[in-house]
Specification:
The complex is a heterodimer of chains A (294) and B (275). Chain A contains 7 helices and 17 strands. With 294 residues, chain A is α+β, with helices and mostly antiparallel strands. Chain A is globular and about 50 Å long. Classes of the chains: A alpha+beta (294), B alpha+beta (275). At the A-B interface, β1, β7, α1 and α7 of A face α6 of B.
């Protein structure tokens, strides 16, 4: 009954389908949020609402094996959203699109923490150690810091007022990057899912380009970090980056390392909702974050 | 005749002597018999006493089967069923005649769980873990709450405890909620108090660690309440109904029992007040 180290096993254990699993302690989880709010993230405190979390991505870095995995969480994922009033008082909870949870923070910090909690709850309490929220202004900065990103278009997409079709090659620079990962035809059902595919593709290509650049210049991540000040809110420190960069020099990111929360798009009201298939999600979480205890 | 005299004398003396010896012998026998008799008597007496106290001991020791039979009788005596569980009546005066610590009744349709709930104001909080409704020591204990919880079920979180009995009595049937189909088909818990009937909607059935729930959180704090709620719902190996809206105002009723092969875990069925 006592909570002594002798009676309580160290670490996080779960029993799933009769087997025991241990959470992999070598993994650090980063919640990366793309915020739809074009004012600087830190100034957003003064205006009502923090904006919405348009892109929600969990980046898991295994510092021991140097492997990286990415889990995309659709913005419309239906979860219990905790609601707060302007004074920061809790007023209740409602099943809504995850993207809305960001709005209920009084400050960028509150919003990020609410998102961390909501995503951790969704993933059956997987610990999320770091978060990073960037707004739209940050995208061209990030994109151009590595000299732009090449993509082969997946499906019809409008970039800088020009329509591209599947198979077209584009070298994304400046605002083009933002257009590419944000374009969405709201008249089209489940259009945010096609956008999610583009975001995954952009990330993979960005990562490959960035890694090549970083191998030439190890200080690049820190200078990008510094260039994002004003358009980023994070609890990742420069120390974290300088610790992680050498660990990750040989890391590659392929499509297999990227997964998405399983589920399906429905339309319960005016807005689309992404209903999670919780049995499939359990399977994914166990495979993603845990190792079987033998 | 010189022989005669002494003989006679001897005889007389002998007689006298021998009669004296016999008297002594008889006395000794008598004493032995008395002592032995007393001894046997005492032995019989004391063994009777032992039997009596063993019987008294036995009467004080709890027996799960017997207790369950008594519960069945009590139920017949105090519960008046109705088509709608909300209109079921419990005669608390009659139930309290068995034990005045009876203050509520719990019924979960679809299970064997249909028992009085006890709370002791004077005894240690763990008393009813190990004492029956008749205050006999041992299993199956009773279904009980601790004094930190209001007897009006107005606490933000009320934890009700019951043993996971091998014979299927007490809270053993909570384990039925491990099955998703059963969980979906049996969503309600009814609590009867002398003043009202409360209907609770089950939103989570999950294994949980063995931390002392009421000691680990301050449930009057919104934060702690939300934290506990999140933990109950973010279960990878339990069942959850996300469509039940759980608020601090509607509270959480946590029903807690053991897991047979996992002493460091509990199995919790959690519900929130609906009407």
């Amino acid at each position: 009954m006592e909570d002594t180290p002798e009676t309580r096993k160290e670490g996080l254990f779960i029993t799933y389908k009769g087997k025991e699993y241990q959470y992999n302690e070598d993994v650090i989880n980063f919640l990366c949020l793309g915020i739809d709010n074009s004012t600087p993230v830190e100034q957003a405190n003064e205006i009502k609402g923090q904006g919405l979390a348009d892109a929600i991505i969990l980046v898991s870095i295994n510092v021991e094996s140097g492997k990286i995995k990415i889990l995309a969480v659709p913005r419309d994922t239906y979860v219990p959203v905790k609601m707060y009033n302007d004074q920061g008082q809790f007023v209740g909870e409602k099943n809504m699109q995850l993207t809305l949870q960001y709005y209920y923070g009084k400050t960028a910090k509150d919003s990020c923490e609410l998102m961390v909690n909501a995503v951790s709850n969704l993933l059956f309490k997987v610990p999320i150690q770091r978060y990073c929220a960037i707004n739209l202004e940050a995208i061209p900065i990030l994109n151009d810091a590595i000299g732009g990103v090449d993509v082969q278009v997946l499906g019809d997409v409008e970039v800088s007022g020009k329509l591209y079709h599947a198979g077209d090659n584009i070298h994304l620079q400046g605002k083009m990057a933002e257009d590419y990962i944000r374009d969405r035809n709201t008249d089209e059902f489940a259009s945010s899912m096609g956008r999610l595919e583009r975001q995954k593709q952009y990330m993979t290509n960005y990562f490959a380009t960035a890694m090549a650049q970083v191998r030439n210049d190890l200080t690049l991540p820190v200078s990008i970090y510094q260039s994002l000040q004003g358009n980023m809110y994070t609890n990742i420190s420069v120390e974290d980056i300088t610790y992680l960069v050498p660990e990750m020099l040989d890391v590659t990111l392929t499509a297999e390392d990227m997964s998405m929360i399983p589920g399906e798009v429905t339309q319960p009201d005016d807005h689309e909702a992404y209903m999670v298939d919780s049995e499939q999600l359990k399977e994914l979480v166990v495979n993603f974050f845990y190792t079987e205890v033998l | 005749m010189g022989y005669d005299k002494p003989d006679h004398k001897n005889y007389v003396r002998g007689r006298k002597k021998s009669s004296g010896e016999i008297g002594l012998f008889v006395a000794i026998i008598a004493i032995v018999i008395i002592i032995a008799g007393a001894g046997i008597g005492y032995y019989i007496y004391s063994s009777n006493q032992e039997k009596k106290s063993a019987a008294a001991e036995k009467a004080k020791k709890a027996d799960p089967e017997e207790t369950q039979e008594q519960y069945e009788k009590l139920k017949e005596q105090v519960a008046v069923d109705a088509e709608d569980p909300m209109f079921r009546k419990i005669d608390f005066e009659a139930a309290q005649a068995t034990n005045p610590d009876v203050y509520a009744w719990i019924w979960i349709p679809g299970t064997n769980i249909d028992y009085p709930i006890l709370q002791s104001e004077t005894e240690d909080d763990a008393y009813y873990l190990n004492h029956t409704i008749e205050k006999k020591e041992g299993l199956p204990g009773t279904i009980y709450t601790e004094k930190y919880n209001s007897k009006e079920f107005s606490s933000p979180v009320t934890v009700v405890y019951g043993h996971n009995m091998k014979n299927g009595s007490m809270f053993a049937d909570l384990h039925k909620f491990e099955d998703k189909a059963f969980f979906d088909a049996n969503p309600y818990v009814y609590i009867y108090t002398p003043n009202r009937t409360l209907k609770y909607h089950i939103f989570s059935a999950t294994p949980f660690d063995d931390r002392y729930i009421l000691g680990n959180y301050n449930f009057t704090s919104q934060n702690d309440f939300e934290k506990y709620l999140d933990e109950l719902r973010s279960t990878i190996n339990g069942n959850v109904n996300m469509n039940v809206n759980v608020m601090q105002q509607t509270g959480i009723l946590t029903l807690s029992t053991c897991i047979a092969d996992s002493p460091n875990e509990r199995f919790l069925v959690n519900a929130t007040w609906e009407e």
